[in-house]
Amino acid sequence: MDLVLCHTTADFDALGAAVGLCVLRPGSRIVLTGGCHPTVRDFLALHRDEYPLIERRSVNPQQIRSITIVDASGRDRLGKAAEWLDLPQVREIAIFDHHLEAHSDIPATVTQIEAVGASTTLIVEKLKNQAENSDIPFRLLPSEATVMALGIHVDTGSLTFEGATARDAIALAWLMEQGASLGVIAEYVEPGLSPQLQDLLREALNNLRSETLHGYSVAWVLLSTEAYVPGLSSLASRLLDLTETDALLLGNVYKFSENENNRNMAPESPVSNRLTIIGRSRIEGTNLSELFQPLGGGGHARAASLATRDVDPLLTLNQLADELKAQIPHPPTARELMSSPVRSIRPETSVGEAHRILLRYGHSGLSVVDAGDRLAGIISRRDIDIALHHGFSHAPVKGYMTPQLKTIAPDTLLPEIESLMVTYDIGRLPVLENGQLVGIVTRTDVLRELHQQKARDRGSNAEFSYCAVSESVEQLLRSRISAELWQLLSIAANIAQNRGWQLYIVGGAVRDLLLATDDTLALTDIDLVVDGKCGSDDSGAGVELASSLQKLYPESRLDVHGQFQTAALLWHKDSAFGSLWVDIATARTEFYPYPAANPEVEASSIRQDLYRRDFTINALAVRLGVPRSGELLDFFCGLLDLESKQIRVLHANSFIEDPTRIYRAVRFAVRLGFEIEPQTEGYIRNALTSGIYYRIQGENGRAPALETRLKSELKYILQAPYWKVALQMLGDLQALRCIHPSLELDRELWRQLRLLDRCLNERKKEGSATDSVTDVTDVRKKEEGSSATDSVTDVTDVTDVRKKEVGRRKKEEGRDNSQFPIPNSQFPIINIPDWQMRLEVLIAYVAPEYRGKVAANLQLPADSIKRLEVLEAGKNELAEGLPKCELPSQLVLLLRNYELPVLIAIALQSPRSPRRQIWEYLTKWTNVEPPLNGNDLKALGYKPGPGFKRMLDDLLAARLDGDLGDRAAAISFLAQRYPQT
User: What's this model's pTM, rounded to 2 decimal places?
Assistant: First the structure.
């Protein structure tokens, strides 16, 4: 364990430097050795989960490998944690400080103490240097940049203190480039006031009037001075912070004489009252600029000012206060913010079992309810970790839970919720209705709402944004889809709302909507998710909604499937919708019992439903129906990744749980022209090199993700026009090992694939000139075709059978198929999709003894498995037989005994000479037919029977070898070889 220690009563400089070190040294944990400054405490009450903090009592001293101390260099600043410095196994002790005069009594192995304004500056310089010299794109998280910027701001007085240096300014500038939030910095930095302003501050505090409305406090005060006072904006900001007021109007009235600005005026010039008002607001929906404009003022929505004269100062201020209060919107309630249903356990549940539940669902805490489902307490991950640390995995959670809880009602307003969390340092608040637990509001819920409020105020490119959120995409959606489709979505939303549900459009449709550059978007595949609130059993909500819609749209087909009643509505060549597929599901969460397994799913919330998805760009949702219709849900910064054109996974174990996401990452990257984000690529490589998939196959006998799900992803890639680029990317990632551990895209395999592509293209050119069978391309992407062949015995019916077979395949494959008719062959028409041919080439590159098993594991058709199993034997047979073929007839009679895909696969793996013979057979000799057919033989008086085949073969051989010319020669040939009695 690598630790970063902050000194006792940690300030922002210590915290910022510690966070920066954790970025430099991933995996390090921060320990606050003895409390923190009040402003830091308030900051962490909301932002604690964004930093790798660990409590001192949770540290196992025997696991400590290194210790780094920031903003201090003496043992006396570390409290009890100083004892760790003497542990024998600690191999490194580093100090980063900016107090030159301090005496160090710590045996450090690395020391950096320099004359800068903040210790954080030293760490930022290291990060900046690493970013400038790294080949991999580097960027801090906004939350990391913000806390480091706070450290420099506070310790340098925003670069005004005597110890501030140019190095501090450069570090701050770089942090701003990295996305440091000025809004958060302004909230926690405390600028100084002049003596005059300090006197006015005391007067303002004594005379301040305030009122609370909708959970927000509004204050106003009028100060009287002899003359104009500079710096009133700083006074307003300080007053706002000290009183914890949400909105403030600070008025200043003073005497003003015209001759102060005009020396030519008479000394007895009239003196007038001037009124200056400074406005500050933290309330979403208020606009001080609009408020002040009628009196000649202006500014920003949250910060504005005005200056006027010859008005009644007190009356004017009171009127503006009333108008400001009228602007305040009703804030969100707990019911709108809460997560529901709530995962709960009984008091008797063991700590170990509680830990497994947290792991399964990814929660940071669990509610504990008694037999009557009444809330008994809450146990956090921190509580469970401490209990496990002390070896109490079998103890009941009731001994470790927090029983005395702060709770809220569904109608509790956001400001009160935020106040409770900050005041009592609470990370989650249970929501009770009639004594029953109906939801829970977490710190994350509050932070997200506050962030979205700021983003809505400043626009989608908000400087504060931890990730950009558009205010509403309803107009965008409505303008780019057909009126009929918008009406369908609106009806679905109304049905859901009437049942107390919330409906969302999620996934690829949202992604494509935001990426679309055309005015119209042709959506043929839409995923809808129903979020049933308040803990009711709404697992069948998706089916119920789909059934209701089907009654209104009887021309659609309703399919019900899935463990949790997922349903789909399908339209085929409809006059209004065309070919449309609408999936409707209840919000779900999923858990993988072991790597590469099929997930276990159960009903959950929209956030958990989005969290189970593969990539951030696919974890976007748009709310349909009131309230907040058209609101974009972006919990995982998918918008930023769309703007950055990168594929980023949601969590580090994603590829361990589902290896098919590796193939989807490549598919989306190539199709959309995106890059795989470096850390995501690292997760891919780690998953592949870990060997976990093959170990699981050995332990469990199978890994479902490497079976039909992998085949589906391979099909999507290998049938796409960009398959070459995608396959090269998979090869670079060594992801073909998911098919078999030995499979790699080396030069020889790539040569075989290119030869196959040339072969398929040549055959299609020939086929297009002689075959009138139309291609099929319009089948829904999700349908998975099966493969089979019909048996053909009469070679004269080849064309009819081919048309029949292709017609059947129309419904199954929906992609270009390579049709290979071989006249006079004993085999039926081979009609295999190109993607499957490519896949068989990949499988054929592994050792012969594994080919059939790999094909069976991917659940390829039986004929495909058989081809791969006999491939090596056929290759050996032809290696022996082809050199003996001196005449074309010998070549044809030998090779026509093999299916065409087998011949192609053998050719791809063979040296040039036999490959040329097979290619000559395919391109030249297969089109040669006997000059007479069965009907001709009957017309000549021959009786049908087994002899027909010998006669036709002899005719074909003679023609191939150039011994026959026209029809007359063929008849003469038969008369000599097969005289009639």
Answer: 0.62
